[in-house]
Write a structure and sequence with these properties.
By secondary structure, the chain is an alpha/beta fold. The protein has an 8-stranded mixed β-sheet with strand order 1-2-4-3-5-6-7-8, with helices on both faces. It has helices spanning 11-14, 63-67, 94-108, 120-130, 153-166, 169-176, 180-188, 196-206, 209-220, 224-230, 251-258, 276-279, 281-295, and strands at 24-29, 32-39, 46-50, 72-76, 112-118, 138-142, 238-243, 264-269.
Length: 296
């Protein structure tokens, strides 16, 4: 059952008061129509910001302007998320998404000196670095989803996501049930506490089945085990920023990964959860800019 046009977030309706709407524009690249936001002067070093599963550019509403003090910041909605077209089924893999984002960077003449990704966005950036599509001075993973889920979940979770994605009814059911209370429970389950405007933005997206389908497709078609095997080959310095209260990705996974990456170091943010960059953008910006300066 194909998704109807109304199932996808609509810019004129759902983006009418989008955070930093004046920074938004739409571009055609890598066979997709992308919604992107740009901050900072074009002559500054480039910075690529990638959000996580189920989010969009609104996730950077507090952090992007702070990073733009030193960088030309480009933040896209990932394929199938927010206002960007979805990838076709044959390209719904981690490598496929990395290739698509690399095509967007080529179109924008963006050569990232700094790459910052949250959760699954960090996995896309890591894949791009491993494939030599970008060579930033520093890769920053904010509560990065870089390794498989522990134990039996590593087998069950992708399979469950795949079954849900293949069922055309699932995204609609989820979207219909995305009231304020449900979205708050979902986000509280990450260990983060967002303000009401932040909750409302997630609810706006999650009430559109096209956005939900994009998030499920992302989770269902990724092979994090392959990325995990390749990570020791990562040649760029990495900063793993970890919220101590993250309930979505256990903080100890970052410490285990750090031991396998000689060029990586960890910054622990006490009292913050999986959406630490939305809870405390000032703290995150300070850490990122300080680390970037030391690696320039």
């Amino acid at each position: 059952m194909p998704l109807l046009d109304d199932d996808r977030p609509n810019w004129e309706r759902d983006g009418r008061d989008w955070p930093h709407r004046s920074a938004s524009r739409f571009v055609e690249a890598a066979g997709l129509r992308w919604h992107i936001q740009e901050f900072g002067e074009a002559e500054k070093p480039g910075l690529l910001l990638l959000h996580g599963t189920g989010a969009a550019t609104h996730s950077w509403r507090g952090l992007a302007p702070l990073l733009a003090e030193r960088y030309r910041v480009v933040a896209p909605d990932l394929p199938g998320h927010g206002f960007t077209d979805p990838l076709p089924p044959g390209r719904l893999s981690l490598s496929g998404m990395a290739e698509a984002v690399a095509g967007l960077c080529d179109h924008l003449d963006l050569v990232p000196a700094l790459a910052v990704g949250h959760s699954a966005g960090a996995a896309v950036l890591a894949r791009m670095c491993l494939d030599r599509r970008i060579t930033p001075d520093l890769l920053v993973a904010l509560n990065g989803a870089l390794t498989p889920f522990p134990g039996v979940a590593s087998f069950l979770f992708p399979s469950m996501a795949r079954m849900l994605f293949l069922n055309p009814v699932t995204p609609r059911l989820f979207a219909w049930s995305a009231d304020k209370a449900a979205v708050r429970r979902l986000l509280d389950g990450t260990g983060s506490r967002l303000d009401q405007p932040g909750l409302d933005l997630y609810r706006r997206l999650l009430s559109r089945s096209g956005h939900v389908s994009g998030a499920l497709g992302m989770m269902a078609n990724w092979d994090l085990a392959a990325l995990d095997r390749d990570l020791p080959k990562l040649s760029v310095p990495a900063l793993l920023v970890v919220g101590s209260e993250d309930k979505a990705i256990r903080p100890d996974t970052a410490f285990a990964l750090r031991d396998r990456l000689p060029s990586a170091r960890i910054e622990l943010l006490r009292g913050l959860g999986h959406l630490a960059h939305e809870e405390a953008p000032g703290r995150v910006a300070e850490i990122v800019l300080r680390e970037a300066s030391s690696n320039a």
